[in-house]
Amino acid sequence: VQLQASGGGLVQAGGSLRLSCAGSGRTFSSYGMGWFRQAPGKEREFVAVISWSGGTIYHADSVKGRFTISRDNVKNTVYLQMNSLKPEDTAVYYCAADLYVRAVRAGQSVYWGQGTLVTVSS
Question: Which candidate, 5, 36, 13, places its Cα nearest to that of 87?
Answer without folding.
Answer: 13
